[in-house]
């Protein structure tokens, strides 16, 4: 068979320049969350097909890379559908594996368990610009902490991390699934319609209040309910918005005061404790797609860059489906690939430490002189310098240009009789 | 479908304790090779099935995890064998992907290309203790450097790295495929028998000279040839061995003087330039399995631990099969999982920087006091300390033990009215 030079469809080779930025970002993330007491963890890239098809992954389950059974288990003759040939697949996110991992290892893990996962996930998505079938996710989760301490820690750790990356002026929007539910109930929508109403509400930033109104009416909802619903989004202003909307919902008996208090505490404590400058606002239109959220939800945006660079929330039910007992969970997913794209687009350079030096050996240099070169290089490396040793090319001018482009501005040539 | 708590057969969850050691080791490897001018790179975990089945991977090709085609391409009705259902698979090593990557990106890569790859590889091996179906490989390669500078750099960088990990008294055995071939030719074996003779020779450390002799005779080789062959392994002693054996082969016209000179230069320069203490010896019985080696080969062992912790060699043909033109290549693969096992068995502790502190919040602490706690934590974290904030459990004695086990010896409790 002929060799294929290209990566498989939809996946990519990572060139050294991008790789250096990725390594730098991973280092920074690990270091920041470590200082908040998070511990790294890892699960295999391959998961049982049962877990991947458990309806926890929503649309992503359609995008699973399925792995063929092996040996005697693979029975092509009697297989009637693809599922008969498959027993595992590549993970499409890090959340399902985290829930499995926690259930499998609870006794060996600290409580609460503060986990940091950075790993590849795989989705057989339609290939499109900037979207790949293998990409890195970065998830931070606190399992087993029922109180709002979990949300506060996650938001503070993540904003500290974004600040260290160099982002300025980012915005965190926050909401609670229970407020979304209460708004829906307050307006007279049926509980069964909650998801659909939210899907339409989620378009607010694109189609505006009038657009949402039109879509809700078109979907057949009563005009009274729609008007009551939309009036909520005009209630209150700025910092007052949460208090005003919350009061309406609590007084109508559709929201517990505790939900409101907790969200207010989170916002207040984060505001008073942050070492990084950013904007934290209550946004009653924030929905977030994944159906497994049960409480607080949040999303980070960076000024000047469309789309979110992170988001997450509380999902108190999902881990329990594996563990067999209720397990509180709050997570934050950092948009690792989105941040890499931003840094690459901005021409970000990884801070160099110690400097770089190239030692170029002339073709005629006798082998007896090599040790002298390597000894000198060793001494410089011990001081933290990067030292590249290579053979002099015929076209030395071109070689020098190449070296300079790689950041080697200090170039020394070792000739038979001299260094220069 | 029911959820499955366990990882898929043969794969493993990595617990925080091991993960910290892995992260530490990866950091140390990246830092060391960076200082030698190596750049990180990455390829997808998934490769075209053509590349994986190209006979470059030897026995490993039987162990491929094959991925089902998707959508319309998957035609179950007309499939007559598993191959009809498959267009890609999980990579079983990092060498085939490196060759493809280099061929695909040559114009964008520096020359020579000094690459560091750390990544997961997958083999559907029979599950057994300490051997997993997903594991990390760590490969360092220099592509495009024909001279022995490549071997010298790789050995020096790798020994520097092992020294920094803390290994003492390790041994590097070195040989050259062309010496193995010359010994075979010198003894009168047919060229076609070279591989089989080497497979038997490779057992020398287990079955000794007499065992090798018995097996060669049993395989039907002429006694004269066998005796001549084995006499070579008794020629010379210690530092003289290479010179003595080399002289015999060169004088017999089966080895070029240049091969001998190069190997002697490598050994001499490495010996004189190393900053780490280790033993470098010529070992004419060293074979190394992979058929793609064309020149120098080497292997590292650590005193007190059976098996190799690394190895590699020159493979000047393989990359060319992808690139379409001859490309010199020398590689070193560090036995990442082997080193992790050794460190875990030795009870290795990752050096802590900055110290660890736990702040435990009493149940009755009012939310108004949270900001004070998070502010104090932020100040300590800014000094490099790891600060864990958590809620006080009913069984505080047990909680304290747990924290101490995690390395939190400095534990402070925040009560409603005091810190203590």
List the helices and strands and how they pair.
The structure is a homodimer of 420-residue chains.
Chain A: H1 16-35, E1 39-40, E2 46-48, H2 49-52, E3 66-68, E4 86-90, H3 95-105, E5 113-122, E6 134-143, H4 149-165, E7 170-176, H5 177-186, H6 194-201, H7 204-218, H8 223-232, H9 241-251, H10 257-273, E8 278-282, E9 296-302, E10 305-314, H11 318-323, E11 329-334, H12 336-345, E12 356-361, H13 370-382, E13 386-391, H14 396-405, E14 410-414
Parallel strand pairs in A: 1-5, 7-8, 12-13, 12-14
Antiparallel strand pairs in A: 2-4, 3-4, 5-6, 6-11, 7-9, 9-10, 10-11
Helix pairs in contact in A: 1-4, 4-10, 7-8
Textual characterization of the structure:
With 420 residues, the first copy, chain A, is α/β, with parallel strands linked by helices. The first copy, chain A, has two domains: 16-345, Bira Bifunctional Protein, Domain 2 (BirA Bifunctional Protein, domain 2, 2-Layer Sandwich), CATH 3.30.930; 356-414, no CATH class. Chain A contains 14 helices and 14 strands. In chain A, strands 1-5-6-11-10-9-7-8 form an eight-stranded mixed sheet. In chain A, strands 2-4-3 form a three-stranded antiparallel sheet. The longest helix of chain A has 20 residues, at 16-35. The two termini of chain A are 50 Å apart. Chains A and B meet through helix 1, strand 1, strand 2, strand 3 and strand 4 of A and helix 1, strand 1, strand 2, strand 3 and strand 4 of B.
């Amino acid at each position: 068979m002929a060799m294929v030079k290209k990566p498989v469809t939809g996946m990519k080779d990572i060139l050294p320049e991008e790789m250096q930025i990725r390594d730098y970002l991973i280092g920074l993330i690990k270091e920041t969350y470590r200082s908040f007491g998070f511990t790294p963890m890892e699960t295999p890239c391959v998961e049982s097909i049962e877990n991947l098809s458990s309806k926890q992954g929503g649309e992503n389950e359609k995008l699973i890379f399925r792995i063929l059974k092996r040996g005697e288990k693979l029975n092509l003759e009697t297989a009637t559908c693809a599922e008969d040939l498959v027993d595992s697949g590549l993970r499409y996110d890090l959340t399902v594996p985290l829930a499995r991992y926690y259930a499998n290892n609870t006794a060996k893990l600290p409580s609460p368990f503060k986990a940091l996962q950075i790993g590849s996930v795989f989705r057989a998505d339609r290939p499109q610009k900037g979207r790949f079938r293998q990409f890195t996710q970065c998830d931070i989760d606190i399992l087993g902490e029922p109180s709002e301490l979990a949300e506060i820690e996650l938001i503070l750790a993540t904003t500290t991390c974004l600040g260290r990356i160099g982002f300025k002026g980012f915005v965190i929007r926050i909401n609670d699934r229970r407020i979304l539910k209460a708004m829906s109930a307050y307006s007279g929508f049926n509980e069964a319609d909650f998801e659909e109403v939210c899907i339409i509400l989620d378009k607010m930033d694109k189609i505006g209040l009038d657009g949402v109104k039109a879509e809700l009416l078109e979907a057949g909802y009563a005009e009274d309910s729609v008007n009551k619903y939309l009036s909520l989004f005009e209630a209150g202003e700025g910092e007052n918005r949460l208090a005003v909307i919350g009061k309406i919902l609590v007084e109508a008996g559709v929201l517990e005061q505790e939900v409101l208090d907790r969200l207010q505490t989170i916002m207040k404590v984060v505001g008073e404790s942050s070492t990084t400058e950013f904007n934290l606002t209550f946004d009653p239109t924030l929905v977030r797609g994944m159906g497994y959220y049960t409480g607080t939800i949040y999303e980070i945006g960076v000024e000047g860059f469309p789309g979110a660079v992170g988001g997450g929330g509380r999902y108190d039910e999902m881990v329990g489906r594996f563990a067999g007992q209720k397990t509180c969970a709050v997570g934050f997913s950092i948009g690792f690939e989105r941040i890499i794209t931003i840094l690459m687009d901005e021409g970000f350079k990884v801070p160099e430490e110690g400097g770089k030096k190239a030692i170029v050996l002339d073709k005629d240099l006798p082998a007896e002189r090599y040790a002298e070169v390597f000894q000198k290089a060793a001494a410089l490396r011990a001081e933290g310098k990067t030292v590249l040793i290579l053979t002099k090319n015929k076209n030395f001018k071109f070689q020098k240009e190449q070296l300079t482009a790689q950041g080697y501005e200090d170039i020394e040539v070792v000739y038979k009789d001299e260094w220069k």
